[in-house]
Structure formats: structure tokens, C-alpha cells
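Project standup — Tuesday

K.O.: blocked on the structure for the chain from last sprint. Re-posting the sequence here as requested.
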Amino acid sequence: MRIVRNERHIRVRSFIGKNAPLVGLGALAIGLILSFVRSEQLLIMTICMVVGIAFSIVGGIFADRYAGPLAHHEALSDILKGLGGQYVLVQYLLPAPHVLLGPGGLTALVVRSHGGEVAFQEEGRWRHRQPGRILRQMAGQPGVGAPDLEAEMQVEKLERWLADQLPDVEVPVRAAIVFVNPDVQLEADDSPVPAFYGKKIKAWLRGPGKRSPMPSDVYRQLALALGVDAEA
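H.V.: unblocked you, prediction finished:
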């Protein structure tokens, strides 16, 4: 499998994820110190608190996606490692953040790095239980949300993009959800969009999720539109 990435996009956001929380802690510390030594400086203390909280939350969001051992781009590429040469993982270059080009078309991959118990419930909602979950979210980690709805939106965006780029070519587009945290316990058999724990997605791509290959000329046109070498 080959990987094509927007390295600048990743580098900038990784920097933010690593450093914004430190700036936030610094601002909070200044506000706390002022509350003891200059309690009359209420406006400055308020500004420090707001800046500190904002930077901490923003930094946590970026850190969850771009920094650390579960950075989405790295964790996903490790999980998919070993797929054949016709597979190309395109990251942060298309309307969907992570798109896998395969012999049978495109797959938008929605990544989640949550640990603990994650389940898709009968009423169509996702449940997440994990020790310290509230504190993690206060620090900026997004909730699990509705990855199935996010996946459907990404498919629609890709289809619109393909209609502009290749109006005369029919390209199959689908989505899958990948939980990359090794500590997750996933129960999502009833999810309307296939959801997998880690490397189990490779077995799906090679088995139940394997699609009939596109004609070679369609694959080449699609690879060209994606900016990758179809012959590599």
C-alpha cells in the first residue's frame, strides 16, 4: 500500500496540538497568580482564564487527531499496512480526510481514537463509556459523536468532487469507520456504516468488503484525478 499525504497540513496541526495546551496552561497559571497578588485586575484575570481554556480545548482537539501515538494519519496507515500495491491511502488532500483508493473504488475512512466501551445502540445512537471520559472531553478530546452520519457526509462530498473531476466516469464510493485505539471494546454490528476495531478492517477489505475491480482505464483516470501514480 502506498500513502500520499498533505505533510504541511499535518505538520502545522501537530505543532498546534503539541504546543497549544502548554500556552493554555501558562495563561491559566498567570490568571491564578494574579488572583492572589493582583485581585483587582479582574479583566486581565478573565482574559487569561478564557485564553487558557480556549487554547487547552483547541490543543486537545488537534492533539487527538494529529499528535501522539494515536494520531489518526499514523494509526490508520499502520493498521492498513500490508495491503497490495493497488491500494493508495490519500490523507488530507481530498474532501474527506482519509480516502483509500482500491481496485474496486474509493472508501472514505472515518477514524476514531477513543478507548473504553463503544457501542452502536438500537435507537441509532452511539454510546461511549470510559474512565475519565468527562475529563478527557474537558481537555479537548471530542466525543464519539455520530461517525456513521459523518461517514455518509464524507461519501456525499467525495461523490460531488468526483462529479466535477470525472463527470463521465462512474466510481464506486463507500465509507467505513475505524477505531484505532487498542483499548477499545467495540460493539457495532448494527451500524449502518461498517465499523471495525483496528486491523480487522483489512480482513473486511479482503473478504466481505472486497469489490469487483474497476476497468483498468477507470482506475487510471481515478488515480490521475487523485494525483497518484496508477502504475507504481
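K.O.: great, moving the ticket to review. The first strand starts at residue 2 and ends at 5. The mean pLDDT is 88.
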